[in-house]
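G., the chain you wanted modeled:
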Amino acid sequence: MNFSGKVVLVTGATGGLGPAVVRHFEEQSARVIAFGRSKESLDKQFPGDSVSKKACDLLNAEEVKQSVTEVLAENGRIDVLVCVAGGFDMGCTVYETPMEQWERLNDLNVKTVLNTCKEVIPGMLQQKSGKVITVGANAAHHGMAQMGAYCASKSALMRFTEALAMEVRTKGINVNAVLPTIIDTPDNRHAMPDADYDRWVAPGDLAAVIGFLASDAAKAVHGALIPVTGLS
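Predicted structure as tokens:
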């Protein structure tokens, strides 16, 4: 696949999955814009000028609007939006989970995507083309003990993805999601040191699925929730 001439915006670019997604599109000749929490983390992860970097608080709607406006002014368009930013917490039982945790995970997993899509989708509608890929969770197909807030927020994101896909599918825009199981990241290895990492999903493999959904080969795919489970 070749994304030469395409402008790809990746949120959560400095997290566990984001760098692999950025590298995948960069290797396919895309013009990549990486959104991250801070300039320092972006510069550390992506030294040099091959990737355009913007520090942006995705929970701040005005900041997202300003950042997307700058991207459009600098590049003229956004062809692909990959919403990687999100969060995970193991909690206690549903009835013991503090409201702050429910709100935090909803903010990280839903509000960040909503704020970004609100600013990017209008441009895609105007150009009559675009690809949006979100990152759900295979675990969110069902509720799981001690994961109520996480499963609820990722399930909401999955319904969000399906609804948005139905709204823009006749406008030249494809909206789909990947649903990974455990991704092989340093944080997950630290949290589960005795696990069999070979059974987890490699970030590069997940990035390749995202790349397919962003390509013209997936033009007939709308509102799909693609399981990416590795061997787990």
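Residues 99-127 form the longest helix (29 residues).

Shout if anything looks off.
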